Amino acid sequence: MSRSRPNVLEILKLLPRNNCRECRLPTCMAFANQVAQGLRKPGDCPYLDLSVLNLEDLGPSASLAPTEKEEVLLELRERIQHVDLAAVADAVDGRLDDTSLVIRCLGRDFFIDNQSQLRSKCHANFWVLIPLLDYVIHAAEPPSPTVDREPQGNWIKYDELGQGLSGSDYFSKTCESALCRLVDEHPDLFADLLDLFAAEHVDHGFDADLSVVLRPLPKVWLLVCHWKADPPFDSKLSVYFDRVTPSHLSGEATTILVMGIVEMLKRIVTRHTFGTGSSGPGAGSGTGSGTS
After folding, report:
1. For the whole model, what pTM was predicted?
2. Which of 47, 173, 198, 249 is most buried per CB count within 10 Å?
3. End-to-end CA distance of the chain
4. Is the peptide bond between 6 and the residue preceding it cis, with omega within 30 degrees of 0?
5. Count of CB atoms within 10 A of residue 131's CB?
6. Nearest-angstrom CA–CA distance, 71 and 9
7. Which residues pair with 101 in a beta bridge?
8. Strands lying side by side in the sheet with 220-227
9. With bands split at pLDDT 50, 70 and 90, how would you rate the model's confidence at 165?
10. What are the structural domain ranges in the chain?
11. CATH number at 1-61
């Protein structure tokens, strides 16, 4: 009987967690994620004891399960307690408010302190918390002298982020196809909804019918392009990322962030269609760090 697939946290616990980059990835979290998906060999880390955890026969995995998201969130909460928030404020384009770091995420201010407590005026869930914490932790890592961390609008596709073919296929089905359906079914409403996220309508030479730039985090930029159906061709939507995105977010956090945007838009469309509830991004009651 074959053993169950080790999750990201199981692998991460066996790593030094010093982000030495000897595996040529920016963090141990990123390495653990790629090993769990079968995109990197365990032996690529010189400090991973292969006799403790047999990972060699793992195949690709699409994404984190809900329980794994909880574990990753706990890991991020632990790591952020060791981050000098004042030192990373400029790097994340944030500001200090007493002992909290304030970052603009999806059009809302989020307050983070070193006790891993988060406050905001909207309900905070996995889709926001994991990318937000990952973003701050990435900023605390020593910058590579050869890597530019400032976004310039140099766009790449998801598969160029280094998540492998299985990850790219999952992203296409879960995020791009879902967004495409929203645009096709609610074209006028979708354009209005993007404005809620301070979308910038642009023309980047992709000859798209709709082309907007979103900045869900200050240094994480997305370009969303939609082409209307033109028989015999179906409609199409593509999400592009600024080339420096891997310097600010892990691949898993990037996926979760876009999934969160998709889910928020879907929920707002549902509320608008049926005429119930609030229509703002991240709408929900209460403050704090809930994860539902």
Report:
1. 0.71
2. 249
3. 34
4. no
5. 28
6. 7
7. 96, 112
8. 155-156, 236-242, 220-227, 210-217, 200-201
9. low
10. 1-61, 155-274
11. 1.10.15.40
